[in-house]
Amino acid sequence: MTGDFQFSWELSGSGWATCRIADRSSEHKSIVSYCTDALADLVDGVTGLYGPTSTQRFSFDLEPAEDRWVLRGRGSDVDIAIRRFPDMSTCFDAPDEEGALSWSSTQPRGALGHAVVEAAQVVLRQYGEEGYLAKWVRYPFPVAALQELRRLHLRDDDCGLEHDLSLP
After folding, report:
1. Contacts of 111 by beta carbon, 8 Å cutoff, 6+ apart
2. pTM for the full model?
3. Ordered alpha helix ranges (H), the chain
């Protein structure tokens, strides 16, 4: 994705992914473990922004740290905050404010939705469902969740960017 907002998800090893998010002023990168269904949690979290609940939370296990994403819808924008906790096993239920703010940005919901759909489709195109499961190990590719996010994004966002409708 070009422009001021960028997002990528790359499988970087057996059970590991590199998640990168950036805006015009800063970047955040995490090496995410397969201990949670991280890509599905991300897709579901962004999908939730299209419903009645304005705040979505999900966590990535970084073994042992936790990256907790807090997405707050504000009209057509989303406040994105990523908070780092030192140990997921002991901090999972801690209040958001106890985590160190690692990255934050406000982006149009359409830009976030588009970027996540595009990044997930790149992974699916590169590995296919079987290849994804072989590489991610514990969880299958979230096909239905990706389809739902793409459907809502196309329905609700006035996105002027090109869309690949061939996958999934």
Report:
1. 1, 3, 5
2. 0.95
3. 38-48, 88-91, 109-136, 143-156
- Quote the pLDDT of residue 2: 46
Token digits for 20? 């990168």
Which residues, other chains included, contact 125 with Cβ-Cβ below 8 Å and sequence gap of 6+? 167
Q: What are the tens digits of pLDDT across the range 12-59?
A: 989 999 999 999 999 999 999 999 999 999 999 999 999 999 999 999
Tokens, residue 34: 């397969």
Which of 35, 23, 29 has its CA nearest to residue 10?
29
Report whether 106 contacts 140 (CB < 8 A): no
Which tokens in the block code for residue 161? 């960017």
Whole-angstrom distance, CA of residue 154 vs CA of residue 149: 9
Whether 119 contacts 9, CB under 8 Å: yes
